[in-house]
Amino acid sequence: MGFEDTVLLSRILTMMTLSFHILYATIGVGIPLMILIAQWVGIKKNDDHYILLARRWARGFVITVAVGVVTGTAIGLQLSLLWPNFMQLAGNVIALPLFMEVFAFFFEAIFLGIYLYTWDRFEDQRKHLLLLIPVALGAAASSVFITIVNAFMNAPQGFDILNGELVNVSPLLAMFNPAMPTKVAHVMATAFMASAFVLASIAALRLVQGSNHIYHKKALLLTMKLGFVFSIATALIGDFSGKYLAEYQPEKLAAAEWHFETEGEARLILFGVLDGEEPKYAIEIPYALSILAHGVPGAEVTGLNEFPEDERPPLWIHYLFDTMVTIGMWLAFFSFVFLFGTWGNWAIITKKWFRWLTVAGGPLALIAIEAGWWFTEVGRQPWILRGYLRTSEAATTSGQVDLMIILFAGLYFILGVGTIVVLSRMYKRNPVEKELADRQKGGKGGDPE
Amino acid sequence: MTLEIIGISVLWLFLFLYVIVASIDFGAGFFNAYSAFTNKQHILTGIIQRYLSPVWEVTNVFFVFFFVGIIGFFPLTAFYYGTTLLIPASIALVLLAVRGSYYAFATYGAKINHRGYIYMYGLSGLLLPASLSPVLAMSEGGFIKMEGSQPYLDYWALFTSPLMWSIVVLSLTAVLYISAVFLTWYANKAGDAKATDLMRKYALVWAGPAIVTATGIIYELRDHNPEHFSRILDLWWAFAISFLLFAGTVYLIWKRKNYGLAFILLVGQFFTAFFAYGVSHYPYLLYPYLTIYDSFTNEAMAIALIIAFIAGLGLLLPSLYLLFRLFLFDKDYVKGKSDYHA
Fold it and tell me: Most buried one in A175, A189, B56, B265, CB count within 10 A?
């Protein structure tokens, strides 16, 4: 097997692991905050529904965390197994946040264990709620640190290369690179946003299935509010991300926007197909790209032709970008309509088709997460460390990557199916109506056993 | 003390902690499966689930800590070990996934207590040490070779090596022994006489094989890596202390006395042996290519990592203390009197 093949195969395996892991990671970062908010609202309003909501979310959450731990360990190790040359270089400069990520995760894992096994152990509910704060903080901090590593890959700094030797390494400078603020904010906001819509999806699904219980309605309203807030935050941060790209990674923005010639008053192109350098059947929004890139309609946006051909990202990332943005916009709009409709008592929001649209929100949000990560990773190509190390130079020379792809594909398939089967069985066996009735009868007996 | 030594000591300590906590986890799974096989499952399952379910994620983090830390302190290891460990490490990942999913699906989730799953979970507890421990054999040299400038793993040499097999067998016996001693103590604390007796029996059964295989490795090293062997002989006194601690554990277990102290002596036994082995391995990370000096990261990163480590420890130790107090040292919890799971 040639070297060329191992690069492609390593990319496929990394893509597989990351695409699978990111679903669990996103939920893992976002859901603790949702549980925290629900439990807090429950304690504050003295409303048992919200407490139970938090508890039932926590039960499902722990299953996704366990799978996330497994896939996270996989990607952590695969970075060294598949990209040894990259990790050797990166280890010298960006090992600090990787290391801190382990501590953050440690912290989260410890308190998650405690939180899960101490329901009703304390007289004062607020004490139990306190235990969740380190879980949420640890989860958020892990994602911050790991995103910093990814930001470094996009905008490496904090070192010099002198005669092939790494010198003047500054771990802090490497961490606080230009890509870091927008990337970290974007990852966090979208994790909260996606988690809220996933939970909203579940509540809406129960309503579509015929339950008319106030519990689900409360769950739906709470999650849609949160979804709306975080989708607005995401949109704002997305705008900053565009300005970051225009400044530091113009080739990524240009490839995403099919913007070939450097020019002012640049239009934004949505969808369409490319005929040479001319987009066809596309939606064009005049000045929008200039505004996205620099905030001014007349601003000049660097075109792709400024870059040598072997340093341009593939043009199909345009569709990934569009998918991400379209879904984000749709969810912001949709949750706005939902909230407005709820306050105004519109008939439409209780219609079945509208509920189905709500159900679609969760899967759509996860698709947007996938599209976003694919966009940022493929959009960095041909670099693994922009400007310093090409992906093609970083891969392993081991000849058995193909076998490992089959092995891990099987593993992820089983884990994915297992998650869905176990989660749906768990909630079906112990529906909320039954649990509420049990609680009223026997006080606090909420355990499925 | 140089930065290199601080770095490797920290990592070695965490690897040691992983060896202990993971052995308890792996062995417990195996005993659980074995007792299911012999229809004595009710004796152990409760105890195993009460202890393991809240802490297995923490166990896993020790492992992640080690491999992230070694890339951080010694980035060049990524090049040698990363390239060559693709298959063994991938297999280990799949086995870890079996264990993680068992906790997720069988104990947290819908309680799938299918026998096949229990057996798979138990078996993974033996296969994992068997797939991870060969790395120790590889570090002795002779298995990782160079083709031009690229390292590769000579599987034939590895699989026909008595050294590799004796390390694998040691890892298995050690896992079962460590786990049995710990669970004897835990079962005793839980006031479960039946489980205590059963685990005590296992502890005594596996004590002999554990010490014989450990000695076997030193013997195998004489031929495989004479340099390392002679350095081990220089440290004979440390291994002698380790043996005395071992004898103490066995004595206490035999006499049914003070299981808590027995477990502490066991940790001492492994600690001395593990560190004596580590010191004798110094300065090599991989014979003869890689030492802790030529693979070390730059000074700025090393200092940053050590500061992060100290800060992290300040956060972790109180948290771990809380975890242990609530689950390991809480009488009602250990005895299974209270169930507070979400």
Answer: B56
Element (H, E) at B306: helix B299-327
Closest Cβ opposite residue B110 in set A65, A96, A422: A422
In angstroms, rounded to a whole number, what is the distance separating the alpha carbons of residues A122 and B265? 35
Q: How many CB atoms within 10 Å of residue B322?
A: 14
- Cβ separation of B150 and A397 shorter than 8 Å? yes
Is residue A409 within 8 angstroms of chain B, CB to CB?
A: no
pLDDT (tens digit per residue) in B3-36: 888 889 989 998 999 999 999 888 888 888 888 7
Check whether the bond before A363 is cis (ω within 30° of 0).
no
Distance, CA of A443 to CA of B150 (rounded, Å) = 66
CB contact set of B273 (below 8 Å; sequence gap of 6+): B214, B238, B239, B242
Name the residue type at position A334.
Answer: F
Domain ranges (residues) in chain B: 3-334
Q: What number is the ipTM of this complex?
A: 0.84
Say what the pLDDT of residue B338 is.
59
pLDDT value for A445: 44
Alpha carbon of A5: minimum distance to chain B alpha carbons (Å): 15
Cβ–Cβ under 8 Å, residues B84 and A397: no
User: Nearest chain A Cα to B74, which residue?
Assistant: A91
Alpha carbon of A247: minimum distance to chain B alpha carbons (Å):
28
Q: In this structure, what token pair is assigned to residue B44?
A: 């152990």
Query: Is residue A404 within 8 Å of residue B89, measured between CB atoms?
Result: no
Of A278-282, A358-362, B86-90, which gets the smallest average pLDDT? A278-282
What is the model's pLDDT at position B331? 67
Total-model pTM: 0.89
Whether the Cβ atoms of residue A284 and residue A265 lie closer than 8 Å to each other: no
Percent of the residues in chain B that have a pLDDT greater than 90, as a whole number = 16
The answer to whether B202 contacts chain A (CB < 8 Å) is: no
Q: What is the pLDDT of residue A362?
A: 92
**CB pair distance less than 8 Å for A89 and B75:** yes
H-only helix segments in A209-301 = 214-248, 250-257, 288-294
Do the Cβ atoms of A87 and B71 come within 8 Å?
A: yes
Burial grade of A165 (CB within 10 A; 0-12, 13-18, 19 or more): exposed
Who among B76, B85, B110 is closest to A81 (CB)?
B85
Distance, in Å, from the CA atom of A138 to the CA atom of A135, rounded to the nearest integer, reads 5
Question: Is B305 close to A96, i.e. CB distance below 8 A?
Answer: yes
**pLDDT, position A232:** 94
The DSSP secondary structure of B213-281, one letter per residue, reads HHHHHHHHHHHH-HHHHHHHHHTHHHHHHHHHHHHHHHHHHHTT--HHHHHHHHHHHHHHHHHHHHHHH
- Partner residue opposite A62 with nearest CB, options B64, B74, B108: B108
Strand, coil or helix: A298: coil
What are the DSSP calls for A363-412, one per residue?
Answer: HHHHHHHHHHHHHHHHTTTTEEETTTEEHHHHS---TTHHHHHHHHHHHH
